[in-house]
Amino acid sequence: xxxxxxxxxxxxxxxxxxxxxxxxxxxxxxxxxxxxxxxxxxxxxxxxxxxxxxxxxxxxxxxxxxxxxxxxxxxxxxxxxxxxxxxxxxxxxxxxxxxxxxxxxxxxxxxxxxxxxxxxxxxxxxxxxxxxxxxxxxxxxxxxxxxxxxxxxxxxxxxxxxxxxxxxxxxxxxxxxxxxxxxxxxxxxxxxxxxxxxxxxxxxxxxxxxxxxxxxxxxxxxxxxxxxxxxxxxxxxxxxxxxxxxxxxxxxxxxxxxxxxxxxxxxxxxxxxxxxxxxxxxxxxxxxxxxxxxxxxxxxxxxxxxxxxxxxxxxxxxxxxxxxxxxxxxxxxxxxxxxxxxxxxxxxxxxxxxxxxxxxxxxxxxxxxxxxxxxxxxxxxxxxxxxxxxxxxxxxxxxxxxxxxxxxxxxxxxxxxxxxxxxxxxxxxxxxxxxxxxxxxxxxxxxxxxxxxxxxxxxxxxxxxxxxxxxxxxxxxxxxxxxxxxxxxxxxxxxxxxxxxxxxxxxxxxxxxxxxxxxxxxxxxxxxxxxxxxxxxxxxxxxxxxxxxxxxxxxxxxxxxxxxxxxxxxxx
Length: 572
Known about the structure:
Layout: E1 8-11, E2 16-20, E3 23-24, E4 29-31, H1 40-43, H2 46-54, E5 59-65, H3 66-69, H4 79-90, E6 94-104, H5 113-116, E7 124-128, E8 134-140, H6 145-166, E9 172-179, H7 192-198, H8 204-212, H9 219-225, H10 239-243, H11 248-274, E10 279-284, H12 321-327, E11 333-338, H13 343-349, E12 359-362, H14 366-379, E13 384-386, H15 399-408, H16 410-419, E14 424-429, E15 443-447, E16 450-456, E17 466-474, E18 477-483, E19 485-491, E20 498-509, E21 516-521, H17 524-527, E22 533-535, E23 557-565
Parallel strand pairs: 4-5, 5-6, 6-9, 9-10, 10-11, 11-12, 12-13
Antiparallel strand pairs: 1-2, 2-3, 7-8, 14-17, 15-16, 16-19, 17-18, 18-23, 19-22, 20-21, 20-23
């Protein structure tokens, strides 16, 4: 078995693709509830797997906890995991395993009992309460070698076992190292060793890296710490001196990011040495700007919190990501858990440095489902994973119709994302709010000599939601996928005097071969006489208009040809 025969990331024109069994693989992924994969008996139920397949899910994320595989130190039990892998393999579904080791949701609640009870060997983080009282947290210290050594040993055993048990099958395609790392309740550890280390200089190699690569650092880092470029790398500067100019909390957060990222590197590198499939860390996002979040009916803290400690201090948020990328090279990518934050800007944040995007957790409702078209089409996501999928039925799951369509067109998507990402655009429109007066901005992108303009589909009554993707196939030919939108074109040639739609066809697709065939021609009614192609809502609202001028969506796939004219007035 070679490195290229196991699951791995392969560089593409602007990102990376997941390669499984030698072929690009589009993850139509979803995450199970945290305890679901812990029970081989529960996962032996064929109805669970069939329900996933009915949703067109091909990849499931599920947890493997340290406490379950090493209940006694040095004694490992993988029988439950093996049963789950065999069941997934039998049903043709891939797995992404979530290693709940030292850290899960900024706590250490999934470590074995023998670790929890031995506080001398495995010290805890301390937080400061009101009136200067220290409180012991259920969180292993990232500053003690015994902690990361024990975790790394267990993770290495897990990865070695995966190599032996699954290496020839590639059922497991990725592994998450820890979960939502960081510290809640304070901005830094207040233990004696942490106090001592916080007063010490920032590691010189980190300062040198930040100075040398200043122009390539994350915009959110530069927004806070642009002055780092002027720091003399030969000087010994403390965390407070380097990062605390605005607020000491900033310095404390960067200090914890350095500690947690080094800890994760110990664990991840030990596992990768045994089985080098893709590894990633996920993120509990910060909530610096609540105005840019979808917080209707929920408190700010649910969205992440505004200050370090309200969200996990030291986790790989956008402004700390560069520290993780430097300290933890064994990670292949850093991935956002994306529930309430602005979807577009978060996707952009986590494409930083050309790394691939993967969304391991997100909303499982209609609003979340519509947004995956932008993640895939604009940010070339490896996958988008609604959380808690096993408590939904396929018939009621909003993702079923989206994944069905994406599955049928996976070959077209994978080819374009690898070779011509500039020829693809994803988009979405949410439910229209009654009385809304704000004019929506269309989604636009220049492709193939045309400005492609995507607007919400509208008939006569209430506008409906929509989502989809447009792919330029060459020579003005566009593949239109989805529902609830209109697509029009404008030539980018200054000499053009007219742009319109030459021809359009509704397509159907063989989901297994990816071959498109014409179902019917779309004449003038469906293109408004060549002005724009209508990809209608699933249930168009005619608003009482007596003539049903727009047909409902059927296949949600069409091809259209745009053209332009360049005229010269002839002299008389």
